[in-house]
Amino acid sequence: MTRTRVAIVGASGYAGEELLRILLRHPAAELTAVTSRQYAGQTAGAVFPRYRECRLPFINPDPEQIAALAEVAFLALPHGLAAEFAAPLLARGVKVIDISADFRLRDTEVYARYYKTPHPAPDLLRRAVYGLPERYADAIRTADLIACPGCYPTSIILPAAALLGAKLVETTGIEAISLSGVSGAGRKVELPYLFPECNESVRPYAVTGHRHLPEIEQELAAAAGADAVVINFIPHLIPVNRGIHSTILLQARPGTNAGTAVDCLRAAYDGKPFVRILDPGELADTKHVTMTNMCEIGCAFDARTGRLIVSSAIDNLTKGASGQAVQCLNLNQGLPEDTGLN
Amino acid sequence: MTRTRVAIVGASGYAGEELLRILLRHPAAELTAVTSRQYAGQTAGAVFPRYRECRLPFINPDPEQIAALAEVAFLALPHGLAAEFAAPLLARGVKVIDISADFRLRDTEVYARYYKTPHPAPDLLRRAVYGLPERYADAIRTADLIACPGCYPTSIILPAAALLGAKLVETTGIEAISLSGVSGAGRKVELPYLFPECNESVRPYAVTGHRHLPEIEQELAAAAGADAVVINFIPHLIPVNRGIHSTILLQARPGTNAGTAVDCLRAAYDGKPFVRILDPGELADTKHVTMTNMCEIGCAFDARTGRLIVSSAIDNLTKGASGQAVQCLNLNQGLPEDTGLN
Amino acid sequence: MTRTRVAIVGASGYAGEELLRILLRHPAAELTAVTSRQYAGQTAGAVFPRYRECRLPFINPDPEQIAALAEVAFLALPHGLAAEFAAPLLARGVKVIDISADFRLRDTEVYARYYKTPHPAPDLLRRAVYGLPERYADAIRTADLIACPGCYPTSIILPAAALLGAKLVETTGIEAISLSGVSGAGRKVELPYLFPECNESVRPYAVTGHRHLPEIEQELAAAAGADAVVINFIPHLIPVNRGIHSTILLQARPGTNAGTAVDCLRAAYDGKPFVRILDPGELADTKHVTMTNMCEIGCAFDARTGRLIVSSAIDNLTKGASGQAVQCLNLNQGLPEDTGLN
Amino acid sequence: MTRTRVAIVGASGYAGEELLRILLRHPAAELTAVTSRQYAGQTAGAVFPRYRECRLPFINPDPEQIAALAEVAFLALPHGLAAEFAAPLLARGVKVIDISADFRLRDTEVYARYYKTPHPAPDLLRRAVYGLPERYADAIRTADLIACPGCYPTSIILPAAALLGAKLVETTGIEAISLSGVSGAGRKVELPYLFPECNESVRPYAVTGHRHLPEIEQELAAAAGADAVVINFIPHLIPVNRGIHSTILLQARPGTNAGTAVDCLRAAYDGKPFVRILDPGELADTKHVTMTNMCEIGCAFDARTGRLIVSSAIDNLTKGASGQAVQCLNLNQGLPEDTGLN
Q1: CB contact, 8 Å: B25 with chain D?
Q2: A61 to chain B nearest CA, in Å?
Q3: pLDDT of residue C342
């Protein structure tokens, strides 16, 4: 069997490290290049001592060179920069699986509003497929530009889109309260992410305009067949390394309860290896999914208020970023969806 | 100056330990007795090594003996048991400051529904005052039975009651999502509270009928002047020792926004030493209040959904339990409210 | 390829859970039975929700039934009990890989002194092989009773035995200071292991007679070719889930320094997949090895005192227990040593 | 009573914040100035939101202005810079309590070797008193330049100096293995101190030439009446916010055991409010001392090796820095040693 040659462009952050972890043991992918301006010349093993045995050297990110080395490139770059690299790579026949935010939003005006900059490559947007395999598997199989979802959106869209699609809940009154481990902030060397600033602390942030908000709304509207869905999204930072938990409050339609919600989700994700639907009344725990590509979902129902309470947990770096990107690679390469992910 | 002689009944848990911490250095209170069946005969210092210099011995909880030793008794007992001790203590002229749930709910049927047992002392309920000093100071000053609020309710009622009272928000559509440190579960030796079960984990629990729910609804209804207020209350367990953060979503009435909400809260709690209202848009962080009796509150407003987003943080053992109990003692004894609490 | 049928006897603790994690994806082993008196009747997935998809039911531990189902049994039982199960299993032709302490010590008197009970199966001791693959691979290949090392001993013996064997250090003046994550205490529901008792805390314990002490001394004496080696072993508990770090102080012989020590260790463990020797002056970090079967070792030298300072890190549940047990299984079954362990 | 006017020079780090915490409630000190180039113009409450009610503005550090505002200045500056400020402050009659390393070492050559720079103010060294109140109280009472000990040294010198002074242990073969919370690294915005780099990790560092080493050796030699004492000092970083634990191994002289060591320490520190000697065999736990100025010390003895094992715990920011500095202030101002520290 020939293995797909893959590159990680911008491999110096936590998502890059997680790609390294997965790809180094992936049976059908061969990691041929890792790029980082900051670490060019050093080996991946020197920069990420967990993988010290990996002697692959970081190189400067050059599309020509990447195209010579790889058939597929994962982009783990800041937004804006990702789009700059996508174009020359695609032009050279390299498929792009982008972990940044650049190709997630269909509407460039929304992009401009939330990212405070014009969209860097509007022409490419049409080619981009939203890389949520449980919902867009067919498109992912044939795409050459895949925009992997954000970590928070993955945890929220998976349950909420299915429930909206089945008309079990209203399209209004949706609220998602999410809690993220600190690795979700990236490997950013800034005061708020120092250990003593995060440990023994919990705090919400960006509660009215987080950049993941429009992405969630776009996908929920698509699932509901609605022009628009407007939600509240309230992220919090908690002192764990990995893991996102989202509690999603939705207004139940008549007849909906925990049992029908669970049935709906089980039907929607039947046979999907990375979605786990708990029994009615059971709730998700990030501890059950860290270091895996699993999304665990539970449902409860408050008859007094009519609210369906959905609890969802993922590992922000795996299912929320790099694991999902590899799941997309697998689909795109005609491999079993869970290759290298168990 | 003569100091008030006080006892801690049921001092072997975390709330008891926190009372010990505060009372050992309180300038106007003298701790004369600590009780615990489990530890009778041992000194408080042996059981709580932080206070090893404290040679006060644990005694068995006997109302007669407590009455001989103390003018005021803090009850840090399980619900049900607290009510059993309150009656004989009150009969002997000992004032009771109860940290349990026994005297918080005005309605014995609600108590029976949530605590799965008939109320153990309905006759005493009428004498009980809800021990939230920022809202019931006058009643606390003259009470002989004070029912201290639960930890979650304190963090939610303080902001929400003021906003409801000022008619800035609707009485419907209220949702409180709370995150608690593990000490909130008490010093219970049970599997879910082992370190490896809690660390690197976050999970919601009791999302539809937590025992603190009716207490919150009772106080919000009182504040709103409504017959009833029905809310969703969603607690989560997070891996910190101390601290509760509540994110409260309320439906803004016309004209309400973060600025008017902050103004309202500042007016409501003007001069209160243990309520800190942040500037509009700023959010609370438990790190700022742990080991203090402070409640920190911030407000944001989402104009798209009309939701007022309130962020509130306390230390669950201090303002959420023992510190608030001492604040009640201070008021009740005619002392400055913050005596021994800074 | 036929897979080896294996059972986990006493699978309800953390070492059992870690065996589950590894064996469920082991390509050459088929997990056919898990036993637990406490959980009999429940599925492994229900007891360990990370592996919820595993429908294998817990059964009561019965040697007859285990022998019908498995060729190899992992014993993850308390000491004493393990020996009771080993005999009937061996009698029925089931190979035994024991994670308990029952067959680690060659000297039954030492066992009796440290475990406060006579050795439960002295006759079997002669058949037992010490399951440290990097040092006893040949014996492990042909053994039918393998006694896996303790977690602390693994982290200490790997570096110290090689240095002693090469005569780079003295056999006296050895001191091992170890730091363990809380999962090392097992899934014991006891007060000292509650989250609030462990978090934000560090404490040494059992500093003069820990049960792992004689095991370390036995193996260091064997490596040194000495009648006896007497050391200080000082374990501490730190607030992490997984990981052991040992700092080992040894008296350098003339000519020994960090460079020669590193050379010696690299020669000793050349080709071994689970030993990583850092460059001179570099030190180990548990973060680099958690969730892996790796032992990472670094050396520094203090010329002022002549002390060689060795830093060693493992995951206490993987290389310190269950991963090492599977490594033994692999050797014993003629498989590549790292099968299912990457 | 007039209160002593005090300033904190360089108040923007964790030691500065801890000084703020203590001084804001100190009954006999009035905080009149806080300086920070970085934060000049902002209030202390804005920079440290725990103390948000504090409206004192940060000013640029100007000796003239500080002298106008304060009688005593705490220097919480990097080494090198502290000495630069000490001279002009002393010249203006301001007493200096320095938390940096500049005046701890008597020997300027040792300073130059460990700090890689010539001593910035050798003339002032003679005036400096080592600010360890349990050992130098008389000198501290009359000093105008007090050099507060480092955090690690405090935890090691307190027990070891007393045991050496009483000749219970040898002056050779001393080893101190210390574990520090991350706040000990200061509020340095560097990659190794990010939450995900520290959490679930433990690692030694600077094991052969840490800057606190010569300070420990200087004080142990003084206590032993020896020309020099040479030790191994092995610091580790562990994932807690606050707390240092030191395990100190000393060679017992004939007749020494845990009981005689405890007796010696109790005699040495009789009446000292901030030293707690545990019973023989009991060991220290950082959890018992965090947020206090206490040093907790326990002793065990290994008769097999003749090693006395001393366990010592402090809060690195309180007794290890700012609390101890205030303890020095108290002595120097003729106040009870524990004023404002309970």
Answers
A1: yes
A2: 35
A3: 87
ipTM: 0.96
Ranges of each domain in chain A: 4-148+320-332, 152-316
The answer to whether residue A166 neighbours chain B at the CB level (below 8 Å) is no
**Best CA proximity match to C326, nearest among C126, C88, C14, C72:** C72
pLDDT at B1: 67
How wide is the angle at C-alpha A313 spanned by C-alphas A312 and A314, nearest 5°?
135
**For D300, phi and psi rounded to 5 degrees?**
-135, 165
- Confidence class for position B342, pLDDT limits 50, 70, 90: confident
d(CA D119, CA D112) in angstroms, rounded, equals: 6
How is domain B152-316 classified at the CATH fold level? Dihydrodipicolinate Reductase; domain 2 (3.30.360)
Catalytic residue among A151, A295, A299, A328: A151
Please tell me which of the candidates D25, D276, D292 has its beta carbon nearest to residue B342.
D25
Burial of A266 from C-beta contacts in 10 A (0-12 / 13-18 / 19+) = middle
Name the E strands within B226-321: 231-237, 244-251, 275-277, 295-302, 307-314
Q: D82 is written with which tokens?
A: 């502290």
Phi first, then psi: what are they for C308, rounded to 5°? Answer: -90, 130
D54, D148, D151, D299: the catalytic one is: D151
The predicted pLDDT at position D342 comes to: 86
Choose the closest CB to A276 out of C52, C285, C289: C52
pLDDT along chain D (342 residues), means of 10: 93 95 97 96 96 96 97 96 96 98 97 96 96 98 98 98 98 98 96 98 97 98 98 98 98 98 98 98 98 98 98 98 98 98 92
pTM value > 0.95: yes
C-alpha dist (Å) from residue A246 to A178, A181, A186, A297, D73: 4, 12, 19, 9, 49
Query: Measured between CB atoms, which of C200, C288, C342 is closest to A50?
Result: C288
- Split at pLDDT 50, 70, 90, the class of A342 is confident
Which of D190, D200, D241 lies nearest to residue A196, judging by beta carbons? D241
Smallest CA–CA distance from D283 into chain C, residue: C204
Q: Is the pLDDT of residue B123 over 90?
A: yes
Which tokens is D62 given?
């100007």
Query: A55 and chain C: CB distance < 8 Å anywhere?
Result: no
**How would residue C1 be classed by pLDDT, with cut points 50, 70 and 90?**
low
In the predicted model, what is the mean pLDDT of residues B117-131?
96
CB C64 within 8 A of CB C86: no
C302/D208 touch (CB, cutoff 8 Å), yes or no? yes
- D151 CA to centre of own chain: 4
Tell me if residue B264 is catalytic: no
Instruction: Tell me if B196 and C14 make a contact (CB, 8 A cut-off).
Output: yes
DSSP string, C12-36: SSHHHHHHHHHHTT-TTEEEEEEE-
Interchain contact, D195 vs A191, CB within 8 Å: no
Interface test with A, best of B180, B208, B314 (most A CBs within 10 A): B208
CB contact under 8 A, C191 and B193: no
User: Which residues, in sequence order, are bridge partners of residue A7?
Assistant: A33, A73
Sheet holding C174-180, edge to edge: C203-204, C231-237, C174-180, C244-251, C307-314, C295-302, C275-277
**Distance separating alpha carbons of residues C43 and C58, to the nearest angstrom:** 6
pLDDT of residue C271: 97
Contact partners, residue A225, CB within 8 Å, separation at least 6: A165
**Could you report the per-residue pLDDT of C127-144, keeping only the tens digit for each?**
999 999 999 999 999 999
What are phi and psi for residue B192, nearest 5 degrees? -65, -15
> What is A4-148+320-332's CATH topology?
Rossmann fold (3.40.50)
The two three-digit tokens of residue A42, written as one number: 């050093």
Residue B302 and residue A232 in contact, taking contact as beta carbons nearer than 8 Å? yes
Nearest of A239, C164, C122 to residue B181 by alpha carbon: A239
